[in-house]
Amino acid sequence: MTRELLTGIGQLVTNDPADPGATGVDRLDLVTDAAVLIEDGRVAWVGRASDAASGALAADVVTDLGGATVIPGFVDSHSHLVFAGDRSAEFEARMSGEPYTAGGIRSTVAATRAASDSELRGRLRGFIRELHRQGTTTVEIKSGYGLSVHDEERLVAIAASVTDEVTFLGAHVVPADYAGDPDAYVDLVTGAMLDACAPHARWIDVFCETGAFTVEQSRRVLEAGAARGLGVRVHASQLGPGEGVQLAVSLDAASVDHCTYLTDADIAALAGSSTVATLLPGVEFSTRQPYPDARRLIDAGVTVAIACDCNPGSSFTSSMPFCIAVAVRDMGMTPAEALWSATAGGAAALRRDDIGRVAVGARADLAVLAAPSYVHLAYRPGVPLVEGVWKDGARVA
Hints:
Blueprint: E1 3-13, E2 23-25, E3 28-39, E4 42-48, H1 49-56, E5 61-72, E6 74-76, H2 88-95, H3 105-114, H4 117-133, E7 136-139, E8 141-142, H5 149-160, E9 166-171, H6 182-197, E10 203-208, H7 215-227, E11 231-236, H8 244-250, E12 255-258, H9 264-271, E13 276-279, H10 281-287, H11 294-299, E14 304-306, H12 320-330, H13 335-342, H14 344-349, E15 366-369, H15 376-379, E16 386-391, E17 394-395
Parallel strand pairs: 1-5, 6-7, 8-9, 9-10, 10-11, 11-12, 12-13, 13-14
Antiparallel strand pairs: 1-3, 2-3, 3-4, 5-15, 15-16, 16-17
Helix pairs in contact: 4-5, 5-6, 6-7, 12-13
């Protein structure tokens, strides 16, 4: 068992309001001139570097971070990382003025079905390395690019090889072979496909949107998954107002994601629930849709998370720092609120209390920034500030 002491931390973001030495700023909890002791993959102690230097804390390894900022590892609670193919031409067309309609999902399905398991695994491993280099230590991964029993099962199994946060999204869109009978496809999703995928997954999700699944079809999918012990997540209100948010709240979904077009009733429902509104800034950046109004949600008391939604069509970014900068610039969030939403907010969207914070007993998931403050994540957009990452107490980047 190795005990590592990280010291010389100029600013430590703990997200731990119980820490008596922390100062609260827009839900963040900050400690200056700090140190963190890591033992057996967990945080064993948090405090002032001067207290650690007294010799009361025995450590096998001491790492001096030279005044850097340390934050909890980012928690990316919405991604689609198991896929094949490329949709850069679709992106180029959108940037030339063509509207986004989500129809390109079927082209990714065709490419993914044709790819081997080894090809999919290799690409996924590359994405995980990419995430780690940018400070992300926890990622949720959805299926949804197989849309057959065989292919959805292999996607969730491949995702489960790199994360515990796997979501079965067989109800992503209706595949071409069921275009004339979407209810029959829902029967497949809630029957044989769910039977095959549930053992590999923690969550079930559905794209409740015009052009994808109706609210009635979505309810069938989510209730079937919940009956199999899966937690509920929902894609909703991305392309226009709808009933998806209300459905999510009624089923006690952990998260409803996108939330681009919300009514006053949607916001009131979210504010009175435990369902997190997960916002995906990379989508609006890539599709040129209006950005969600995070300020309106936060002021109403809604818990907000930020995630990348890394996928080949509408948001091909894995950078949480980029999403933080966009959320501050275009969604009405303060730098502190955006960082909290990308760490503790993401943890809340996954209903986890062992990640997204630096507190005794939490997983030792940390990112080191070459900056004097967390504010630089938004202040210096596009600059690779992450210079070290620890996941479960081990340095991974």
